[in-house]
User: Fold this.
Amino acid sequence: MSDRDSTEEQPQGQGADLVMEDSGSEPELRSQEEEGDMRGDVQELATKTLHIQSKKYYLDVKQNRRGRFLKIAEVPGRGPKKRLTLRMPAAAELRDYLTDFSEHYAQLGPANPDNIKEDGRIKSEQIISDNRRYYLDLKENNRGRFLKISQTGDRGPRIQIAVPAQGLVEFKNALTELLDEFGTDDPSDESQTPLPKSSQFWVENKHFFFDVGSNYRGTYMRISEVQPRTQYRTSITIPEKAWSRFRDTFTDYCSKMDELKIAHQNGGPSSPSVPEGDEASGSVDHGDHGDHRELEEEGGSATASQEAD
Assistant:
């Protein structure tokens, strides 16, 4: 099971609901932007309402002290409202992918319930924006075709919405109108130093993610390990001021490990010297814990956290 699929939805056919699983209770689904709404420091710039089959969708462009963003809310015929948020550049990527998905859907023939893949996936894409990832999956089952949009981030549960495939063009057109009016650039980026892109890699059966982000407290790197079977994520956040110390300490241990291997192969001593400044046990100095906590997102976790992704 991949990082994008921790649960499975049950879409239905024309004129019925696309039933999605709960991604958490209403308080758990509140993003930082929504918390800003509650504090009254978010300005609503525009909104569009869509009715697709028996569902209602709200597309809202808002602005807070960190810049403009798009909030998408899905109101199903039954069940809780689901919301996800994107910065304007990510919303522009979503618009472009919606174009691709709608064109691909238009070229598909009639659905064959007897010839559906086990995971139902037809086409997939991914958007990475700061420390958030958005998975776009055009899927089908014996009840119909739909686009599933999943948002994951540093904290909180996975957020998912589903759009019936018949409504992709209408959804894309509404998003395009908002982007044409308010632009695809984030004004807050103009005064910020560009950040490196996120990266990830596998080591045996372990999946590691490296995400660089920033807030009004500074720049930080989040290193996460995702268990492929359970989809639990364990993360640490490192403030930029400590990066060089982590690099030097890690490089030093790599050198010491190489010395150990060579000494072992040659039948020499088996214990290397401990890196200067470290304890005899080889532990890394944790003097920057206070800086670390200050860099966490508001309402975020402590130094290390384990969460269901």
